[in-house]
């Protein structure tokens, strides 16, 4: 299920990526956050209870949208544009 | 020669850069975003097709003018997009530029760091599907998306009606608008708001448009809880329950002041903003000799004021550097800014801060979403005798997480003040720390 709903700009070229190993697809110009939340419901698990989080401020302030790329980099999903073939993984967070 | 550095390419930063360049001074403009415009005039990625009118509505011509100026300036100045300023010390800024660590020395610096939403948490606010009002607007402006299928807009402030209107206009389903401010407050504010009739008319238009299109607007309605297990399923207020799958909420804006703090600027309590703000004179000079402040980062006044304040601060930089300027211009700008300041007082009357929030926040409410600290845990620290905010932070970690208190700091202060029986201005403010935003491991450092 998706969290976000596309209302406009849907004619852009498609980009394929993987989310936790599963094939997924976004559009050129999507942020990682948009690409992930138009096909999934969360971005990460929280640090102290592993509850699902899906970002909050979308402007690089809240730091609640960090995801991991296959080269090991951790990036803010709200301020990183999607690239073809990216392998994005979600941090499950930590249980108490 | 060390450059004049401007931090932030929103309305204030762009206008400051333009003014400096027009007087023969080539600035270095550093901005965290991919493209200039700031949050208010945030520009969609290349390849998107919507017109400025579709994205910015009544503000289209102002947004286009800001973008045009940015495009003209970019090749002529030292423009550094996608660059984070994470520390400031002794005339030097530490930067993170696309994963590379760099530094830049400055002769003078204009801080135009803007604002984020002012958040008063409610139970359920960390659920997927809950966003700040600014976030909901960015999803639409920048990505052409709604934050859900059925969206509720809550909180207060001018942005509340604007974003709800923009969503409905773009084809999203807006299930309700909850304004915590009573209608009577907006009536009381009218005399002050009439000073900027155009801005007032736009606000009234959004409100009327929503009603005319059958969107329920509840005034004096305070969001109490957001329901859901894995994601949002509804909201509650008073005796009402309403199903929805997304919520956008905020109570106006808060200034982004960390950099001014690291630069050593003196702060003072500002009653209008209900916040500690770096002090500035009418020209934008801070308490530190070579540091200037412009735009919402030094007190919320909106985009039009930010543009004027950017120009005014740049003129102050020029005056202080011995460059000739049109001596009539500063007075014109300062007079216009004073007019907007009066309007701002009216807005504060129309959308008053919900002072009862702290007393009503349940103990189980998670205030700090990074460190997962509840209102009850904060109160327990206060009950041990602590009331200074940094001391409370040391004891329970509220505000100590990745966002450095940007989302929870003001709410935590409200709880500490209420519990300790002190005024909100008496409990102190969270100190800024470097790095002001998280840095990744493995940063390349310049030799």
TrEMBL record, chain A:
Gene3D superfamilies: 2Fe-2S iron-sulphur cluster binding domain, sarcosine oxidase, alpha subunit, N-terminal domain. It comes from the Bacteria. This is 2Fe-2S iron-sulfur cluster binding domain-containing protein. The keyword Oxidoreductase applies. One of its GO terms (molecular function) is iron-sulfur cluster binding. The keyword Transmembrane helix does not apply. Keywords: Oxidoreductase. It comes from Pseudomonas extremorientalis. It holds the Pfam family Fer2_4.
UniProtKB/TrEMBL annotation, chain B:
One of its GO terms (molecular function) is oxidoreductase activity. Residues 3-310 form the FAD/NAD(P)-binding domain. Residues 368-443 form the SoxA A3 domain. The keyword Ribonucleoprotein does not apply. Keywords: Oxidoreductase. Pfam families: Pyr_redox_2, SO_alpha_A3. It comes from the Bacteria. The keyword Metal-binding does not apply. This is FAD/NAD(P)-binding oxidoreductase. It comes from Pseudomonas extremorientalis.
């Amino acid at each position: 299920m998706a969290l976000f709903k596309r209302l406009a700009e849907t004619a852009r070229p498609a980009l394929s990526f993987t989310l936790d190993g599963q094939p997924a697809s976004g559009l050129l110009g999507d942020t990682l956050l948009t690409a992930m939340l138009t096909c999934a419901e969360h971005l990460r698990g929280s640090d102290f209870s592993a509850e699902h989080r899906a970002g909050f401020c979308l402007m690089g302030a809240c730091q609640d949208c960090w995801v991991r790329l296959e080269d090991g980099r951790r990036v803010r999903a709200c301020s990183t544009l999607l690239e073809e073939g990216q392998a994005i993984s979600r941090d499950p967070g930590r249980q108490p | 020669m060390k450059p004049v550095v401007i931090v932030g390419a929103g309305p204030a930063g762009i206008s400051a850069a333009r003014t400096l360049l027009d007087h023969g001074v080539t600035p270095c403009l550093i901005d965290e975003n991919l493209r200039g415009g700031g949050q208010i005039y945030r520009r969609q990625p290349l390849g998107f097709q919507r017109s400025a009118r579709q994205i910015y509505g009544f503000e289209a011509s102002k947004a286009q003018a800001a973008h045009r100026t940015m495009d003209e300036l970019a090749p002529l100045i030292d423009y550094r997009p996608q660059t984070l300023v994470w520390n400031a010390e002794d005339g030097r800024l530490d930067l993170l530029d696309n994963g590379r660590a760099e530094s830049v020395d400055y002769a003078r610096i204009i801080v135009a760091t803007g604002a984020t939403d002012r958040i008063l948490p409610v139970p359920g606010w960390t659920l997927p599907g809950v966003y700040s009002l600014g976030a909901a607007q960015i999803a639409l402006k920048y990505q052409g998306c709604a934050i859900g299928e059925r969206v509720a807009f809550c909180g207060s402030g001018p942005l509340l009606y604007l974003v709800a209107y923009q969503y409905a206009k773009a084809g999203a389903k807006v299930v309700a608008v909850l304004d915590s401010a009573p209608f009577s407050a907006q009536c009381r504010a009218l005399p002050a708001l009439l000073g900027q009739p155009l801005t007032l008319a736009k606000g009234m238009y959004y409100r009327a448009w929503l009603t005319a299109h059958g969107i329920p607007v509840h005034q004096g309605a305070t969001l109490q809880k957001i329901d859901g297990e894995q994601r949002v399923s509804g909201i509650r207020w008073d005796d009402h329950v309403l199903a929805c799958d997304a919520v956008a909420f905020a109570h106006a804006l808060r200034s982004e002041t960390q950099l001014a703090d690291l630069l050593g600027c003196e702060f003072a309590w500002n009653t209008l903003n209900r916040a500690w703000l770096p002090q500035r004179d009418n020209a934008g000079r801070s308490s530190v000799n070579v540091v200037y402040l412009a735009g919402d980062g030094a007190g919320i006044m909106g985009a039009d004021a930010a543009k004027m304040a950017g120009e005014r601060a740049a003129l102050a930089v020029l005056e202080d550097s011995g460059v000739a300027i049109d001596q009539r211009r500063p007075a014109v700008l300062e007079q216009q800014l004073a007019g907007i300041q009066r309007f701002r007082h009216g807005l504060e009357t129309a959308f008053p801060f919900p002072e009862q929030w702290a007393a009503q926040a349940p103990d189980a409410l998670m205030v700090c979403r990074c460190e997962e600290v509840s209102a009850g845990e904060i109160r327990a620290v206060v009950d041990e005798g602590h009331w200074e905010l940094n001391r409370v932070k040391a004891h329970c970690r509220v505000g100590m997480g990745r966002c450095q208190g940007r989302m929870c700091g003001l709410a935590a202060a409200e709880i500490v003040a209420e519990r300790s029986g002190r005024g909100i201005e008496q409990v102190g403010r969270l100190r800024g720390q470097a790095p002001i935003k998280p840095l990744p491991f493995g940063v390349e450092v310049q030799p």
